[in-house]
Amino acid sequence: MMIAVTVLTLGAITPNHMIWESLLEEDDIPKSHASQGQTKEYTLEWIDPAEYYVTTDTILADFRSAAEEQSYVKFGSRIGPVIDAEFRTRILPAIQQVIDTELSVYGKENLCNLAISEKPSGDHAEKIFHVYHKASGKDEIRFHVRTEKKPLEGYSFNFHYHLASDQYQRHISIGDIYWSKDTPPKWLS
After folding, report:
1. Count of H helices and E strands in the chain?
2. pLDDT below 70 — which residues of the chain?
3. Which ranges of the chain would DSSP assign to H, the alpha helix?
4. How far is CA 21 from CA 28, 113, 160, in A?
């Protein structure tokens, strides 16, 4: 073995006797431990790569993205372009913050069991989307927008949410976007 190392390295590396002694000791160790019943067992566990990359942060990022998408579906082509700038700068970050804050307490396993509804309500109904439990169908958070008419000011959109923890009783405001004195079109139009 020493001659093979010398020939392969053209003599640049000279074998050290400590290397050979440690190799011999390592070969002897398992045999002596095996005879004494002190073997180590190693178990390899297969991790699905799809599950490995699914973290709480990636799940919350998917919720934030779906929230934005469902909001624009709700606005339709007539309301969306008019309120787009203000929605993106003030309301959407607040909605995403609520998602992060309220859902981060669930943990990865429970977050995997939640989903965002995909059908906002039209006409004059309030529903933008709901975060619900897939198995039970129970809503955890309801995100809504209400059209309000304020005297002498005109119409505005009030964005708010409700939580299951208080049976959806509290109306937690996110913010308002002013429309105009004219009646806004129906949602989804």
Report:
1. 6, 5
2. 1-2, 5-53
3. 2-8, 17-36, 49-52, 56-86, 92-103, 107-111
4. 11, 57, 73
